[in-house]
Design a protein that fits this description.
Elements: E1 4-6, E2 14-16, E3 19-23, H1 27-44, H2 51-56, E4 68-74, E5 84-92, H3 93-99, E6 108-109, H4 111-114, E7 119-128, H5 135-152, E8 154-164, H6 172-182, E9 191-192, H7 210-216, H8 219-226, E10 230-231, E11 236-238, E12 243-251, H9 253-268
Parallel strand pairs: 7-8
Antiparallel strand pairs: 1-2, 2-3, 3-4, 4-5, 5-7, 6-9, 8-12, 10-12, 11-12
Length: 273
């Protein structure tokens, strides 16, 4: 197994072999993340780009200049656009204040989450290059998020996660499973905006096969559930991205506790993080 190290002066830097996970440092690195997002969302998947995106071969919006961008970088691919092989967009309260809203508020009433005491974090625009969709790469991304959460004392994180397709009926079992087994408590329950609300309660609880429903769910959503994540009320159909979106909410206690124990153990043993 490759050595893993954390730069203790900057908790959001993690390295494993030629791979490094850290925040984007320059406008060029953000541009490279946008290029990766374009390749995954618009070329590989079936999202519909705007004319400006198509001309630049970039996925972008007004949030990109205001937030943090977590990158997975493969140093074996040189020093340029190809080195960014994974990304996550991270929006905290200060960035949302500059933008005038969180991205998720276009789909959900997130007022219960915004009212939550302490720092909150919106996760979005997650994608990984096709050649790097391994458990190890995803673990690196999650380690980067955990380090960021720990560094900024994030109490709650949330964001929209997607199931493929725009027909909720075809996704009835996994959506009903999420509704019956993982619906957020009222104090953490984001709700799809009335004009976009589509019910997830598409099957009776007793008619659901939980194992089959879980197998259908995308790995990212299953990852959130393993962290104790909750689901908001209602789904939203995103025709631009050809997806059915759910709102994920995760209290970060488990994440920060796991990261802190890992960091504390490594420090005690005299090992890198």
């Amino acid at each position: 197994m490759a050595d893993t190290s954390v730069d203790q002066g900057e908790a959001s830097v993690i390295r494993t072999g030629s791979l490094e996970v850290r925040l984007a440092k320059t406008a060029a690195e953000v541009d490279w993340a946008q290029a990766l997002r374009y390749r995954v969302f618009y070329e590989e998947m079936t999202a519909i780009p705007s004319d400006a995106m198509k001309a630049q071969l970039r996925d972008f919006d007004e949030f990109d200049a205001l937030c943090d961008h977590l990158l997975v970088i493969d140093h074996a691919r040189g020093n340029g656009p190809d080195m960014v092989v994974g990304t996550y967009r991270l929006i905290r309260r200060p960035a949302a204040a500059r933008a005038g809203r969180f991205y998720s508020s276009d789909e959900y009433d997130i007022s219960p989450l915004v009212a939550w005491p302490g720092e909150i974090l919106e996760l979005g625009r997650s994608c990984v290059d096709a050649g790097y969709r391994t458990r190890g790469s995803m673990q690196l991304l999650w380690q980067g998020i955990a380090a960021y959460v720990f560094q900024h004392d994030i109490a709650l994180m949330f964001g929209c996660a997607s199931l493929p397709g725009t027909d909720p009926g075809a996704l009835a079992e996994p959506l009903a499973y999420l509704h019956h087994h993982h619906l957020a408590p009222p104090e953490l329950r984001a709700t799809a905006l009335p004009e976009r609300y589509v019910s997830m309660n598409l099957m009776e609880k007793d008619a659901i096969d939980p194992r089959r429903a879980l197998n259908i769910l995308p790995p990212l959503i299953k990852g959130y559930l393993r962290l104790g994540g909750f689901i908001g009320d209602g789904v939203v159909i995103d025709h631009q991205f050809n997806t059915t979106d759910v709102c994920i909410v995760v209290k970060t206690d488990l994440i920060t506790d796991k990261y802190f124990k890992h960091y504390e153990r490594r420090s005690r043993d005299g090992q890198p993080g």
